Structure formats: C-alpha cells, structure tokens
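Model it.
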Amino acid sequence: MYDVIIIGSGLVGLGVANALQESNPLLKLLILDKESGPAAHQSGHNSNVVHSGIYYKPGSLKARLAKQGNQSMFAFCRQHGLYHDQCGKVIVATQPKELPLLENIYQRGLDNGLSVRRLSLAELQAREPYVNGLEALLVPDAGIVNYSQVAAKLAEIIQLSGGEVHFDQCVEEIKERGEGVEIRTQNQHYQGKWLVNCAGLFSDRIAKLAGYDTGMKIVPFRGEYYVLNSEKNHLVNHLIYPVPNPDFPFLGVHFTRMYNGKRDVGPNAVLAFKREGYTKYDFSLRDLSEVLSYRGFWKIAGQYMGEGLAEIRRSLSRRRFTENARQLIPALRIEDIQPGPAGVRAQALTADGKLVDDFHFVTGRRSLHVCNAPSPAATASLEIGREVVRLHLSHL
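Modeled.
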C-alpha cells in the first residue's frame, strides 16, 4: 500500500514527488510511467528555456508559478551541478504594428514583478548584432537548462529518498474506493491511498479511467524546430523572441542558444495526428478521430483559420519557415538551417472552443488530476509540485 501513486515521470510528476518528500520524508511514494525512462515526452522534447513569466496574466497560476519556478529551477541546477545559463532573452518588435503589443508585454512584466527593461537599439545591437528590430525588451531572468538532465536528477533523488519509480507500466484501469485507489497496468496491480495524475498528453484519458469528466480534451500541437548550421552560430548569441501574435495562442518562431552549443530555430505549431506524433508521418486513428469529432476543435479552428494555415504552410516549406525567421534575423538563408527535433504540446481545449490558458486541476475523491500543464510547466514544475501538495495533499 503506497501513500501516493503518481502517474507520469515527466517534470510535473517528478516535481510533485519531490514536493511530497519535502513535506513528509516518510511517505511511501510510487511513480508509474509507460515509457522506459523519465521525461520521455513533453519534458524531454521542448525548447529547454527557463521562462520568466512575462507573458502571463497577472495573478494567474502561470504568472506566479513561472516566476517562482524560474528561481527554484536555477537554484536546483546550481545545487546539483547541472547545466544552467541565466543568459536573458530579448523580445523584439520588427514592425510598427507590434510596438503597442511590446509595450503591453513590458507593462505585464512590471505587473508580474519582473526586472524587465527596455533596450535601446544600440544595446540590442551590442547584444544581438544580427537582429532586425525597431524596439526591444530585455528579460534578464530567462535562460537555458537541460530539462532531460533535470528530470534524471529528480528521479535519482526521489529514489535515493525511498520513492519508487516503475517504468514500462501502462495504466489500464483505475478504481477509486472508500479509502484508496487500485491501479492495474498490463502486468501489475498497485494500491495507494491517493492518486496524482500527471500524465501530460494522456491526462484526460487517465482522468476518464478514474471516472472523471474533465470538461476538456487534450489536443496535441506539434512544434517543429530547425537547427542552425554550426558555422552560422554567430548569428545568435542568446535567446531571441518575436512579439507574440495576439491572434494566435503560441509564442512564434524564436532563436535559442542551446545547452549543447547548437542554435535552435522554431517552433511552428501544427495539429499533430497523434498524441505523441513527433513527425509529420506519425498517425493514430484514435487520436485524430477524437480531435476531429470534438466540436471544440472546429470552433477554435475557425477562429484561428488564417494563422493555422500559415503554420501548416511553414511546416511544409523550409523556404516559408526561413522567411518567417528572417523577420528577426534578415541574414538567415534557407541553406543555413537543417531539420531539427520536434515536440508535442498537450493543450487542453473545452467543448466551446476555448483554449484552457492557465494550469488546471480536477479533484476526485482520492485523486488529483493535473489536466492542463503546457508551457511554462517545465520552468514551474518544482513549484507546481509544491502548489499541489499545499492545496491538495498537505494532510498527508
């Protein structure tokens, strides 16, 4: 009998386990994951950016936990000797119509208590000499880590502290009873007093197995990256972001100096035909049918039709992708980039066609379901874990 069983060994699941051990080192914990190691999906397929919280609505969980998570993620990396680079990022307006939007971001950053500041063009050029911009902001708290490395270290610490992590265990059945939860995988039965669902791309299905209708569905969006040829690395010194398009719920193509010395360019955002669909050719009839039969998807597809089609065109054409990236760095040429990795974002969508913007939790009788944890969940993962324990599991 375990005190808490956590489904999912991504950063959020590991963050919850870490927070539980901080709260009560004597708890008997178990993490289950269907893959052979931690951070196999969203946590290990992302930009590796540690966000500051500048984009998020003041007072929201995203804003608060991203700011706190930025500090605790860098502290964790320093404590354990993991790669980290708090290099800051610039957000650049390249067109006059973006200037009011950039000012809104600046004010939001101040409202969220961040040390954001305006950059003169001379300061921008000194920092990123190849960037084209009219005005820019510097967000000094942002940076880069290696989230796969962070997840591996968290899993190691959790196990050294007495927690168990069982891989290759795909959950097939969940039964909540009066005093606990029974979980069946393909070859094991487990019993626990409490369940925490941190299954990411499959969080809605896990909640449904436990008997809960979350009122939303996970829709997978693939983000495709390119990588600069090494001889062009000088084009990008740190992190370079555009002003986000207010007509589209993603941050847009940006440039990232990675932990391995490479420079990533991207991502775009296109509907994935499989929840774990990292290539254009990955396909699941069940996953795609669920999306296409969901009325909420068609409502949002109509709302973002223009931008959605533009993203698809950029996905199919390196030339169009390069043209989009050249708005920030005009010296970039199509031959300067090669296809790189991809990630899939688990975005919760309601039946009335609204993207669930903030982190979202659904409580059960003996369970808690983390049903929406897109970016900046990696940044905020340690703090999401502490928030879950504080609000829902403090009695353990």
